[in-house]
């Protein structure tokens, strides 16, 4: 399909917002959930053109869900997405893809992939994002 995908980028931290800004610059719609997030994160999300939705709305509207967060939260975030997807079932976009873009070890990737096995959500072991976003400067 030539339709521009609707994506969720979680979270709207420095890296997630940088990726989201690039996606929105190409005309993509990018959702996030800012519940409990700081004013700085809210400002980054707004600057990146991200749309704040409830977690359930984010899952229901996204063709792609990109997990971009500290690696320690990768499994619990994937579990949360899998639970929401199971709750909403046939109301989800088809196809819907969950991409883990975290720098996690192969065993963690297998654990996350297993969460989506046999579900309507496709799993992609995305590129592990490491380092600093292009917009960040290292201090001397």
UniProtKB/TrEMBL annotation:
Q: Which domain of life is it from?
A: Eukaryota
Give start and end of each D-isomer specific 2-hydroxyacid dehydrogenase NAD-binding domain: 6-70
Molecular functions per Gene Ontology: NAD binding
Q: Lineage of the native species? A: Eukaryota, Fungi, Dikarya, Basidiomycota, Agaricomycotina
Q: What is this protein called?
A: D-isomer specific 2-hydroxyacid dehydrogenase NAD-binding domain-containing protein
Annotated coiled-coil segments of the chain: none
Q: Which InterPro entries match?
A: D-isomer_DH_NAD-bd, NAD(P)-bd_dom_sf
Q: Name the species this protein comes from.
A: Suillus placidus
């Amino acid at each position: 399909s030539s339709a521009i995908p609707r994506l969720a980028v979680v979270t709207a931290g420095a890296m997630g917002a940088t990726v989201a800004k690039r996606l929105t610059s190409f005309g993509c719609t990018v959702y996030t959930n800012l519940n409990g997030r700081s004013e700085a994160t809210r400002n980054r999300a707004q600057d990146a053109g991200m749309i704040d939705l409830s977690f359930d709305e984010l899952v229901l509207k996204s063709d792609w869900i990109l997990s971009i967060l500290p690696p320690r939260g990768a499994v619990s975030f994937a579990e949360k997405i899998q639970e929401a997807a199971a709750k909403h079932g046939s109301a989800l976009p088809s196809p819907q893809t969950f991409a883990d873009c975290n720098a996690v070890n192969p065993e963690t990737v297998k654990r996350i992939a297993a969460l989506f096995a046999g579900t309507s959500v496709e799993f992609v072991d995305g590129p592990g994002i490491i380092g600093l976003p292009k917009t960040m400067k290292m201090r001397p």
